[in-house]
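Module 6 notes. Inverse folding takes a fixed backbone as the condition and produces residue identities as the prediction. Think of it as a translation problem where the source language is geometry and the target language is the twenty amino acids. Below is one complete input and output pair. Work through it position by position during the lab.
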């Protein structure tokens, strides 16, 4: 899926601000999630297709990681009904298994790494464009990863679930960024993410959208939400922008 005009806007730094999702877009969360699920399922004797479980549990994790514990408890029945591998368990056992997976994930995700190509991409885009992160993770956690990777300086603002007026897919999730720019067309903004909620929030806000099928959602799922551009990885986007071998290039592709 290509949109040559949007690529040109990125190359020429014509966008005012670009919003990145974090988990699954910048941070590779698949390995810690797989490890968490596999360990708990083995311990509990739960037989399941790991790939399907990662997709389902990852989607649930994306939707609730920004919730306060009381809200998770209130909505837990509906939330855990979405996990096929747990369908034969009682509700209480589902709840315990899910919480154990999420607890392990929170530990293992601290060692997760950025996807290849993220550093050169933000270095490239930062020259002439304001960069932000809007995440369902907690602000402190996102900043810790950015500091560890020494790229926090490239972002004008970082907003986790604890600082947002609403969570994606609500367009209000983008307000902390958009409200900083008065009388500027929505087409001067872009959101880049790996989940349908990222694409939906951007479309509802009237901004450009780029889907990256690097996280939990499969490419065919993201295609159904019709982002302006869709890539399998950050590397693929970098190649279109002429960012090669870890360094920005002026070459056209």
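Target side of the pair, the amino acids:
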């Amino acid at each position: 899926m290509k949109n040559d005009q949007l690529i040109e806007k990125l190359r020429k730094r014509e966008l005012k601000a670009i919003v990145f999702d974090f988990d699954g877009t910048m941070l590779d969360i698949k390995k810690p999630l797989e490890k968490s699920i596999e360990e708990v399922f083995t311990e509990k004797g739960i037989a399941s297709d790991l790939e399907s479980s990662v997709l389902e549990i990852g989607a649930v994790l994306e939707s609730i990681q920004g919730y306060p514990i009381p809200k998770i408890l209130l909505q837990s029945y509906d939330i855990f009904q979405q996990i096929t591998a747990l369908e034969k368990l009682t509700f209480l056992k589902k709840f315990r298994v899910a919480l154990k997976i999420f607890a392990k994930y929170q530990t293992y995700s601290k060692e997760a790494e950025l996807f290849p190509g993220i550093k050169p991409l933000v270095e490239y885009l930062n020259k002439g464009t304001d960069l932000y992160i809007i995440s369902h993770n907690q602000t402190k956690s996102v900043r810790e990863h950015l500091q560890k990777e020494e790229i926090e300086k490239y972002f004008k603002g970082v907003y986790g679930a604890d600082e947002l007026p609403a969570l994606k897919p609500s367009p209000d999730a983008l307000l902390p960024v958009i409200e900083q720019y008065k009388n500027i067309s929505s087409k001067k903004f872009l959101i880049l993410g790996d989940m349908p909620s990222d694409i939906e929030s951007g479309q509802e806000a009237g901004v450009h959208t780029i889907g990256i099928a690097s996280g939990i959602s499969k490419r065919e799922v993201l295609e159904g939400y019709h982002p302006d551009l869709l890539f399998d990885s950050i590397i693929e986007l970098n190649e279109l922008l002429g960012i090669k071998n870890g360094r920005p290039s002026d070459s056209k592709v």
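Reference fact for the lab report: The chain has a mean pLDDT of 88.
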